[in-house]
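BUG-122 | component: ligand-complex export | severity: low

The export step for FE2/S2 (inorganic) cluster jobs runs without errors, but we want the raw record kept on the ticket for reference. Input record follows.
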Amino acid sequence: MKLEIMQLEQLPVHTGRVIQVFGHEIALFRLGNGKIRAVENRCPHKGGPLAEGIVSGDYVFCPLHDWKICLADGNVQSPDTGCVKTFQTEIEENRIYIMIEPQEQGERRESLVPEQGLVNQK
Ligand code: FES
């Protein structure tokens, strides 16, 4: 599904922002070329907060140990290996949208929320 996140001007170029969508913590970036990238805000190495990383071109450098991660496909660049989840985004009339499927919400909650917490979830 397509969810509106924020106005384009609320996201400065090269400055990561963290948003919460369906239980995912997502790092959002606006690149120098105007594109918006969205990736899970968790480095595949040791969980570094990618939103606080340095952005260069289509890459972010993790703030903890400087792994280089492609924001387009989520792939960690050599010599390191791994992948971070990416989310498709769109810009329409100066608003940023993210594509995220509702079933991902269920998967995430089942894996992270304690059982008694699920009873009270809406
Ligand atoms: S946690 Fe990101 S490089 Fe180590």
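Assignee comment: Attached the raw record above. Residues 70 and 93 are 27 Å apart (CA to CA).
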